Amino acid sequence: MQNRNWLYNRAVLLELFVIINLSFLALDVFIAHSVNSFAHRAEWIPLIFSLAAPLLLLLTLFRGQDRMKRCVGRGVGWVSVFIGIGGMLFHLESQFFSDLTVKSLVYTAPFIAPLSYAGIGLLLIMHHTVEADSAEWGRWILVMAFVGFLGNFLLSLCDHAQNGFFNWGEWIPVYTSAMAVGFLVTAIVQPHNVSFLKLCLAILALNCVTGIVGFCWHVSANLQVSAPSVKDSFLYGAPAFAPLLFPNLSLLGALGIFGVMRGR
Asked: CA nearest 119: which of 239, 221, 248, 261?
């Protein structure tokens, strides 16, 4: 590594970002699939993968040779992509394909959620294919962040449509994620305007705040719901961790912007 201080090494920061995300997905999948007590054996696959893959990546991050890191990174990346696509099809098959209505799309299992694995996998594959010191690396990360925010926009729209946007605040993540989508796609096409890139950082900061507030809002709502237990209120109530996608993608987008600015 050219920079011994990993805090300033973009390659290491991205690897840690992937490791933390995969580890967190283990908890998210466990909670989501506990609703039906892992009724299908296939529901264990993403959980086992999310527990094993971060350990493998962490072992090779600081001690593995460059060739080993590339092989492990790409291997984990492709497996993650297949799990994400397979999970999406599995969720869609649960109801949407049988009814083919907007209602079934909104109320079926969250079909976009498994694509988090596909996004992380593609991010790993890109990282071990493109030189981390280049502006191209930063632009590819911006592409990933753009796709992520597009998915976040759809998730916010579908999830909050379940109760007809009962609370006006439920529109906030829809608007902020739509703003992030517009700004990021412009940054991808026009990456040389430093002033605009700084404005993009401000939009990402806004989305970061939106996610933190949304997390507190969801947790508060679940604690106020009348349920047999606190566990049930979180299992069947508002998805507590869903808003954290906003600060997560904001950090990824910021890493891409700094990569573009420093790699030019």
From this structure: 248
By the 8 A CB rule, do 68 and 60 touch? yes
Provide the token pair at 78.
Answer: 């492709």
Residues ≥6 apart with Cβ < 8 Å to 9: 1, 2, 3
Q: CA-to-CA distance for 238 and 36, rounded, in angstroms?
A: 16
Q: Note the pTM of the prediction, 2 decimals.
A: 0.80
Q: What angle do CA 199, 24, 180 make, to 5 degrees?
A: 20
Which residues of the chain fall below pLDDT 70?
1-8, 64, 93-112, 165, 227-238, 263-264
Q: How far apart are CA 109 and CA 136, in angstroms?
A: 36
CA 235 to chain CA centroid, Å, is: 20
Query: For residue 62, which phi and psi values (nearest 5 degrees)?
Result: -105, -15
